[in-house]
Each structure stands twice: as C-alpha cells, then as structure tokens.
Write a structure and sequence with these properties.
about 1100 residues; alpha/beta; 7-stranded mixed beta sheet; 6-stranded parallel beta sheet; globular
Length: about 1100
C-alpha cells in the first residue's frame, strides 16, 4: 500500500510477554454470548457503571465500542439514564442489580451524582463510540507520526472517493497514457460489446472498484500486488505460462473429442440407439469448451456398452469400442478439467486485477491532491504502523489511556479491526484490568462489510482463561415466539448441515455448533405471543396474488384484533421485495398505510421535488415536463386545489405563482442558496399572498438545504452542476426517521438491533446458497499451487467452474459462509417481534433445489406438498398461540419521568428568507474568456473571441430553437457580450439557411463535441468532431470553422470519416462549414 510514511515507535522488551500474561489472568476477559432479546444493552451498561462507580473509576479510562451510530446514541442515553436513577435513589431492577454487584456501598447516590456531573461537564471524554470513530480519533492524534498533511481531512464517503479515482483514471487516457492501461480498458470494452452491454465501461468499473479496492482481501496485499503487477516482464511470463497450460490441456481434450467424432462418422451406426446422438452431443460440448459432467445416458454407455444399441441388437464390437473411447474421453476430461478451469478463471479476471491496481494508484493520487484520508484505510494503516508488541504505546501516544474496554456486537468485528485493538486488550489484561466482549454469532449478518464471526466463535480457544457467560433469558418476545424459535432453529440447523454439499467434514455440524445456545427461557409468568406460518407454492419470487391476498387479510385481521398499524413491521431480505409490496399495496390496498425506506428519501418529499423541478425550469424555459411537475405539486399539494392533470397540462404557466413567471430571468442569476430560499418563499405563498404552512415538510427541507450547502462547499454556484449532483448523489440521501405513521417496511439488515410489536415476513424463502451470478459475485482467492501462485491474491467469478478448479476449497468455504449468512438472517428476523410473528414461505416442488422455504415447510407442515402442475395454488397456515393486541397508551407511559429518556418532539418550522445583498459574483468559467490588460485589444482579437463564443454556442444546441437557451446559458456563466442580440440574429439566419438547416432539424441522433478514441501503431489518439449526426447506418460529420479556408481542414474531417466507417457506419459524409462566409464544402474520401 502506498500512502503516508509511518514513524515506528520504540519497543519495550516486556511487551512480548503480554499474551502469555493475559492468558493467566483469571476472569479478566469476560465474554457474554447474548442471544436476541437477552438484555445485552442492560448488561453492557451495568458493566460500564460497575467500572465507573468503583473506587478510582473515571469515564476517561473506559472505552465502550459499538458498531453503529444509533447503538452509540442508545448506549450513551441508557448509561446517563441509569446514572440519573441511581443519583435520585430510585428503586428498580437495574439499580438493585448494580448495588448488589458493587457491594451495597452507602455512598452509591453520591458516587452516581459525581459521575453524572463528571460526564456532563466533560462530555468529549465520554468514550462510547463506534470502532470507526475510535480509529478516526487515533488518526487525528497521530497525524504527524503518520505523515499526514496539516490540513488533511477524513473522507467518510468511500464510494464518492473511488468514483473520483475512476473518473481521474479514465480522463487521463490519451496518447500519452500507459499502453498497458489502454489495453486493459480496450479488453473491458470488447468484453462488454460481446455481452451486448455497450461500450461505456465507467459504471461497471466504478461498481467493481467500489466493492473491491477497499476490501480487506485487496488492501492487505496491495503493496505486494502492486510490485508484482507493475513488473511487466514477470506478468508477461505469467500470462504466457497460463495460456500454454490452457492450450495444452484444451488441445488434448478437444483433440480426443474430435477423434471420437471422426470415428463415429467413419463407422456404420446401424443398430445404435438414436444413431449415437448422445455420444455426438457429449463430444461436441467438449469441442465447444463445455466441461460439464457427462449425462446419465453417456455414463450408462460406459458401464454397459449394450445400452448403446437398440433392443435385440447384438454388439459386433462397435459398441464396445465406442464405450471404451467414451471412458477414455471422460477420464481425460477429469484429468484436464481442473487445469483448464483454473487457467480460464485467472486469465478472465487478470485484467480486472490490473485495472483495480490502477484505480488504487489513482485513488492515492486523488486523495493526496485533496489532502484527505479514507476512513476505510485506517484499519490497514494502524496494522502496518505497528507490530503487535508496539500497539499499547501507540494507543497511549494517541491519548487513549484506557483501563477498561467493552466491545458490543463483537460478532461483526472485522479481522483487521480485531488485530489492531487486540494488543490494547492484552495490555489491559496484563495490568489486571478487565475487558468485556458481547456478541452473538447467530446475529452475524454483516460479513459483506468485513464482519468475521469466526473471531467470536473461536475466542475461547484463543483465550482459554476467559470467563464466558451466556444470557439465556429473553426479555423481548412472548412465550410462544420463544418456543417456536427454540424448536425451529435446532431442527433447521440439523437439516441444513445434512444438506448434500461438497463441504469438508469439519463443517458437517457447523450450524448446529453455532446454534447450540439458541434455546432461551421467558422470565415472564404469563404465556403470550402468536406465530403464524403460511406456506404457498407460487412460481414467482415476487409477491404473487395468493400471497398478496393472504398478507392483506392477515394485516386486516391484526388491525381488527387491536394491533395498531404503527406497531407492525414488514421485514424483507432484498430491496426489490420491499418495492414490490409498496407498489402492489399502493395499487390495490390504499386503506393500509405503508412507510418504506423510500419514504424517508429526500426525493420522496413533494416540496423538494417542486424545488428541483423549478430549478430545471429556470435552466431551460422549454422544459414543459418539469413545469408540469411544479404546477401539479404547487396546486394540488401546497394549495390543495385538487386539479386534474388535464387542466394542469392545458394551463401552461398560468397556474404558477406570478412572481416565479415574472422574475424567471432574475431568479436564474441568483446565487444557488439564496435562489432556493426565494423559491421556498414564492411557492409557500397562496393566491391571495397568504403564507402556506409547510411545517410537515420541515425535516425534508432542512436536510435538502444541508445538501445544497455541502455542494457549495466544494463547487461553484451553478444550477446545472447542482442538478447533476442531485441526480448522482443527493437524491438518494435520507432524513432521520422518527415516528412512523403506518406499517414500516425495511430490510432484515436494517432491522438489526430493533424490536417491533408485530413482525410480518412475506418472503421467507430465499436461496440457501446465493450462487446466482450478479454484481456481487466476485470471490477473492489465494492460489497455493505453482504456477498459479505468482500472484498472492486475485478476484475470480463465483460460479460452478470454481468448484472444479484449484480454488475448490475457497469456493466451498464461501458457499458454507453463505449458508450461515442466510440462516442468521432468518434468526435476526424471527427474533425482532415482541408479541406477534407472521411468516410466509414459497415452497418449491421436491424435484427443485431446496430453498429456505423448504426448510420452514419441513418444520411447520411436513405434509405440505406443492403441486407445480395444478392451476390452484396450494396454501397451508399453521398457528401457535393467540394474537396479542397493542398496548394502551396508559401502559406505555413510564412510571417515573427521567430526563434522559425524553422523546424528541417535532418543532413548528417556518422559513424567513433574507433579501439577497450580493451584487456581483463572477462565474468560474468567465475567466477563460475575460481579457487581461496584456491582451491585444484590436479587431483581430475581437474576431477570434467572437468565433470562440459562436463555437461554444453551436456545441450547446440541438436545433435552431435552442439558440435562445444557449445564449442564456452563456450569459449565466458570465460570457455574454455587448452584441448578443445581433449575434443571436446572425446565427439564427445562418442556421436557417437551406445549405445547413437539415443538420439542425432534430431528425438525427446527435453527438456534439464527443470524443472518439483511435489506436495506430500502439499510440492512442483522441478526436473530437464538432457535430456528428447518426441515423440508421448513416453518419454525417460537420466541422465548424470561423476563419479563412485552409488546406489542413479537409484531412481533419477525412480522419473523422474514416473513424466512423470503422465503427460500422456504412454511409459517411463529411462537411466543412465556414460560418462567417456561409460557405459549405463537401469532403470526399
């Protein structure tokens, strides 16, 4: 990894004994294995306060690590609330348990009050934070040692930084670019073209880079990879070796297959079953590179040559010969397949690795140029900065003088994170302090984000002296839900462990081992709770009619039984499932209020939609679609006039506020932030100049203005640039979700850490192994065999070919991890409800590959039989317990008020935009055209400047009707001239001339100022014709000239024409247009 140079810290000799010393510490490392609903937060807060309220305790010496900002806020709030209860002398379960652990000290109230005052007056050192925040804090304190510039900033948006690096890389491709990089890009383009995906590689490269360039698998070996990949000769030999092995193995196999075909062609097949077509088919598949196992028919021919023949036909030796040849071919397939597939996988993805290396290098350059450091790289930076023995001194140098460490959600800890913080824990243990880890392997669902549950699963082996406690009581769910989960998960784990896979023996009981502690008890004396499982046999993986009807009926039944909509939550595993439910209910069941994650998007706000559409109108007066959106929202949402769309379409701009229409030009010139304030003021004013209350949109509007300010921090005040920023980034931002008026729809991953009165899971039938190829199918592997091990790691496609290559073990391990991921997702979902759990599962026919729906059916209703041939859908509903209604408001109120438990309340919200005082703001682009005192102020220079402006105008229009808009855009950028009216009339006259008008009539597909890349003698060149028109297989290229005719002009156009011909256009014509003289010259090849 290239980056800041790291200053090493001196080692202390005794630190090498830390690990052994820590292993001997009895009960210093405490591990809580906390199943869902078992009071994990209660336990963490209690242990934090035990350390805080013990003699000599201080919040400055305690670190509590969580994994989300939400969990951090909850933990801080809980600790402060408990401290307040203790300081007030309140008697509850927590205060009694804590007093008992502390030995019933007489001064507990005074200690609690002092601790509370200490935290509130020194809140910066109240160290409850995410693990990323902890390392970010260390990074700030060690900036000098890490070689970071004084003005560096931490970049939290990894995707944005990676996208910038890819753009930087692609923009740098020209005739001076690295030839290897050009070749990799060309190969990627050709691969996309073969797959009919088009030639644009930017998006694919950004997506691939975002998933991999900051992954641990790549970062850990980035430096070694870069050295090897940059060694051109070494890589040439590597490719050559792999291709030679591939050619040899494929040649042997295809040669044998062709020989068998030739023998079949040369013999009589009279009496052979189906004329030997299955044998032919198998041999031809091998010729085409298909290395699948032979069919059952082909295998039977090898076992019994007589089966090659029709009944009552006696073998005369031909069948035995074919059978023998088949057997030899299958043996050869088995011998060569591993080599062929291994070479194919590596060679196919090698260019992606080269590109990823180039993106990583570009990312370093872009970050350095912007004085920023990616938060995602802090883990590796600390890993490289110190060895294990140095770590405690580094943490102390960074100001982290800690005595007690508590880590929550430990199953989601990444391997690098654990390696970095482990030495700090060991140091604490060696000094006689305590460290607490809390986690649950069953709730590990963030492996895609680096979480490694194996750390927690094997922690007892690594530290045998650790004290392990299991929290067995479930304080969240009703008895029937607990009983269902206690019975289902052990049975399902056993079933999935038995599922026929190529797993190793060591993994034969993995799920059963993970779920050995799944059984919980209910501390409440009353048995309540409700579970319903609905099985159906739809042929689709989205919401079919029967499942939709069942879901709606169950929601209505819950509502009638007294369950409030706001107490219900629908959990799904994929976003497309949430979208399917939201869309179907919006069409069919408007009486059921739904609140999906999309409802909290900025783009979901009607007022924000209005503001964006108003900006589009200001940028382009002829944007009638945006004008209609503005009118519809203003009339029907803000003024509540309920006008039909037909009226809005016919009214044009007459229904818009008169101020907006009258001040159109003036508004477009205003600075962006002040403009948006004015738009809010204009569109919240009624027909009679009364103010309209939009306080219901306050959260969206303030969040939107935050995005405007964030944009202006790094960009000039440009409407067009902001709209691009909105489309690419800001539209996907969300507001903090508070109280939800309706049934929440969210993914299982987002539900982690939450609890709901009633949970509905309508798609509980996902694949057990996520082997479908898609955008996330990359598997990082580590070749161990020669000659494949020339690279320490590389990405391959996760498909069946990997299972029969040298990467078989890693592929099967990945499948095993996917099985755990899916099973854990079910556990998280099934343990979210407090009172009611409703499950729907689509069950495939027994002949199909089993899914999680099959597992649920085997447990809930073993007799359920899906019938794929029947027109009537099979349906089975099993229930346990009775529906529990929502609590009354009186029961929900706390017995005593605690200021730290106060709920947030909405505050009335109004805008009061201030008058714009800015008189002049120069456009960033105007400097390109503003002349300095040194510029020659003569007629020739004026002539050239006018030509530049005309060229810019022509590049900005499609038709002659676009000229006013183009002039307006030029004026907004500070590029207008004193003769704009005269110039507009001149250009309009030229464009309407019969010689050129057909080029501006809008009937062609247009490419204005688009770059064409060409390659000649390994030199890459850029070509940028002024205007290219395309229709069917015809292409017209036009070059504008604003000077006198010259002999050099025609060859330039001919070059463009040749390039268009090579791109597949059959009829290509070229023209030179001398605009001032209105002379048009035809160019012929």
């Amino acid at each position: 990894m290239s980056g800041p140079k790291v200053r090493r810290f001196p080692k202390k000799p005794y630190l090498c004994l830390l690990r052994d010393a820590a292993k001997d510490m009895k009960e210093s490392l405490i591990i809580y294995k906390a199943s869902a609903g078992s009071g994990k937060t209660f336990t963490l807060a209690q242990n934090y306060l035990v350390q805080l309220l013990s003699k000599g305790g201080s919040h400055r010496y305690i670190l509590a690590v969580t994994f989300t900002n939400k969990a951090t806020t909850e933990m801080k709030q809980r600790i402060l609330a408990y401290l307040y209860d203790l300081a007030e002398g309140r008697d509850n379960d927590f205060t009694r348990a804590l007093a008992e652990r502390l030995g019933q000290p007489a001064d507990l109230k005074q200690r609690a009050q002092a601790a509370l005052d200490g935290i509130l007056h020194d809140y910066d050192h109240f160290q409850v934070m995410t693990i990323d925040k902890f390392f970010q804090q260390l990074l700030s304190n060690l900036a000098h040692e890490l070689g970071l510039s004084a003005n560096y900033r931490i970049e939290l948006d990894d995707r944005k930084a990676v996208d910038e690096a890819v753009d930087f890389l692609l923009d740098a491709i020209d005739e001076r670019a690295d030839k290897k990089l050009i070749g990799w890009i060309e190969d990627l383009i050709e691969d996309r073209m073969r797959s009919n995906k088009g030639w644009s590689v930017g998006r694919d490269l950004k997506n691939f880079s975002a998933r991999n360039v900051l992954s641990e698998a790549f970062q850990l070996r980035e430096s070694d990879l870069r050295n090897r990949l940059n060694d051109a000769e070494r890589m040439r030999r590597y490719r050559q070796t792999l291709r030679a092995r591939l050619d040899e193995a494929q040649g042997a196999l295809t040669g044998a297959a062709q020989k068998l075909i030739d023998e079949l062609d040369g013999m009589s097949l009279e009496g052979f079953s189906r004329k030997g077509q299955y044998v032919y088919a198998f041999a031809r598949k091998l010729l085409n590179g298909d290395l699948e196992e032979p069919t059952k028919s082909v295998c039977s021919y090898i076992e019994d040559p007589q089966k090659l023949l029709n009944k009552n036909v006696t073998d005369d030796g031909r069948a035995a010969n074919v059978s023998s040849r088949l057997a030899a071919l299958v043996d050869l397939l088995h011998d060569k397949r591993r080599t062929i597939l291994s070479c194919r996988l590596i060679l196919k993805n090698l260019n992606q690795l080269f590109l990823l290396n180039a993106v990583a290098a570009a990312l370093d350059l872009v970050n350095k140029a912007n004085s920023r450091f990616l938060l995602a790289k802090t883990k590796l930076l600390f890993h490289e900065m110190v060895g294990e023995q140095d770590a405690p001194f580094v943490f102390e140098r960074a100001g982290a003088q800690l005595r007690h460490i508590l880590i929550d959600e430990f199953q989601d800890t990444a391997r690098l994170q654990w390696n970095n913080i482990k030495s700090l824990l060991l140091n604490n243990l060696a000094e006689g302090n305590t460290c607490l880890l809390v986690g649950d392997v069953k709730q590990s669902i963030y492996r895609w984000n680096g979480g490694d549950w194996n750390i927690l699963q094997n922690i007892e082996k690594e530290y045998p002296a650790a004290r392990v406690n299991s929290l067995r009581e479930n304080y969240r769910s009703g008895q029937h839900i607990i009983d269902f989960n206690n019975a289902f998960f052990p049975a399902a784990a056993q079933m999935l462990d038995r599922l026929e896979t190529d797993e190793t023996d060591a993994a034969a009981h993995l799920l059963q081992d993970i779920y050995a502690d799944v059984s919980q008890v209910c501390p409440r004396k009353t048995a309540d709770g409700y579970v319903s499982v609905t099985l159906h046999d739809a042929e689709t993986d989205v919401l079919d009619a029967e499942a939709e009807a069942s879901l709606y009926q169950q929601i209505q039944m819950l509502r009638q039984t007294g369950v409030a909509y706001t107490d219900m939550a629908i959990l799904v595993r994929r976003n497309k499932e949430a979208q399917a439910i939201a869309e179907r209910f919006a069409e069919q069941h408007l009486d059921v209020p739904l609140a999906s994650a999309e409802a909290f998007l900025l783009s979901a706000s009607p007022v924000v939609q209005l503001l964006i559409s108003a900006l589009r109108c200001l940028m382009d007066e002829k944007d009638t679609l945006s004008q209609a959106v503005v009118t519809r929202i203003y009339c029907n949402h803000i003024l509540a006039e309920n006008r039909p769309m037909s009226d809005i379409a016919e009214a044009g701009s007459t229904l818009l506020p008169a101020t907006f229409v009258r001040r159109h030009a003036a508004l477009a010139e205003m600075p962006l932030f002040e403009l948006i304030e004015q738009l809010i003021l204009i569109f919240t004013t009624g027909r009679s100049d009364e103010r309209i209350d939009i306080s219901g949109e306050s959260a969206y509007i303030t969040a939107f203005l935050d995005q405007v300010l964030a944009f202006l921090d790094e960009n000039p005040s440009s409407i067009e640039a902001f709209l691009n920023f909105w489309d690419e980034e800001a539209a996907a931002k969300t507001i903090p979700s508070t109280a939800v008026d309706g049934i929440r729809i969210l993914t299982i991953h987002k539900s982690k850490g939450l609890a709901f009165h009633t949970v509905l899971i309508p798609f509980c039938d996902w694949d057990i192994f996520n082997t479908k190829q898609g955008s996330r199918s990359t598997l990082w592997v580590h070749p161990q065999e020669s000659p494949y091990d020339e690279l320490p790691t590389l990405p391959i496609e996760q498909n069946k070919a990997a299972a029969q290559s040298i990467f078989q073990t890693e592929y099967e391990q990945e499948l095993l991890m996917q099985k755990v991921d899916g099973f854990n997702a079910a556990y998280v979902a099934f343990t979210r409800p407090k009172k009611n759990l409703l499950i729907w599962a689509n069950v495939p026919p027994a002949s199909n590959k089993p899914t999680f729906g099959s597992v649920i059916a085997s447990f809930a209703d073993p007799d359920f039989t899906p019938d794929a041939d029947s027109e009537d859908a099979a349906l089975s509903i099993k229930t346990w317990g009775a529906i529990v209604p929502s609590q009354t408001a009186d029961k929900q109120e706390a017995e005593a008020q605690n200021p730290f438990d106060a709920k947030a309340e909405a505050v009335p919200f109004h805008f009061t935009p201030q008058p714009v005082r800015a008189i002049f703001k120069q456009s960033n682009k105007s400097k390109d055209f503003v002349r300095t005192e040194a510029d020659p102020d003569d007629l020739q220079q004026s002539y050239i400047d006018r030509g530049k402006r005309f060229h810019r105008l022509l590049s900005d229009i499609d038709t002659v009707e676009d000229l006013p808009r183009a002039f307006e855009n030029l004026r907004r950028e500070g590029l207008s001239g004193p003769d704009d009216a005269e110039d507009l009339a001149f250009l309009r006259k030229r464009l309407m001339d019969a010689k050129v008008s057909r080029w501006f009539d809008g009937s062609w597909q247009l490419f204005n100022e688009h770059t064409i890349l060409s390659r000649n003698n390994n030199q890459l060149s850029r070509h940028r014709p002024d205007r290219v028109l395309v229709k069917d297989k015809q292409a017209v290229v036009i070059d504008f000239k604003f000077g006198a005719p010259a002999a050099s002009h025609a060859p330039q156009v001919k070059t463009y024409m040749h390039l268009l011909q090579t791109m597949g256009y059959e009829s290509v014509t070229g023209w030179l247009w001398y605009v001032y003289q209105n002379k048009v010259e035809s160019i012929s090849l």
